[in-house]
Amino acid sequence: MPSNLEVAAPPLEAAATTMLPRLFRVQRYLQETDDTFTLELGPLDDGAPLAFAPGQFNMLYVFGVGEVPISISGDPDKPGVLVHTTRAVGTVTRVMARLRRGELIGVRGPYGTPWPVDQAEGNDVVIVAGGIGLAPLRPALYRLLAQRDRFGKVVLLYGTRTPEDILYRKELERWRARFDVDVYVTVDRAIAPWRGSVGVVTHLIPKAPFDPLSSVALICGPEIMMRFSVFELEKRGVAADRIFVSLERNMKCGVGTCGHCQFGPLFVCREGPVFAYPRVRDWLAVREL
Amino acid sequence: METLERVLSEHAFFAGMDPEYVHLLVGCASNVRFEAGSFIFRQGEEARDFYLIRQGKAALEMAPPNRPPMMIQTVSEGDVLGWSWLIPPHRWRFDARALELTRAFAMDGACLRQKCGEDPRLGYELLRRFSSIIAERLEATCLQLMDVYAIQS
Ligand SMILES: Cc1cc2nc3c(=O)[nH]c(=O)nc-3n(C[C@H](O)[C@H](O)[C@H](O)COP(=O)(O)OP(=O)(O)OC[C@H]3O[C@@H](n4cnc5c(N)ncnc54)[C@H](O)[C@@H]3O)c2cc1C
Ligand code: FES
Question: Can you tell me the ipTM of this complex?
Answer without folding.
Answer: 0.88
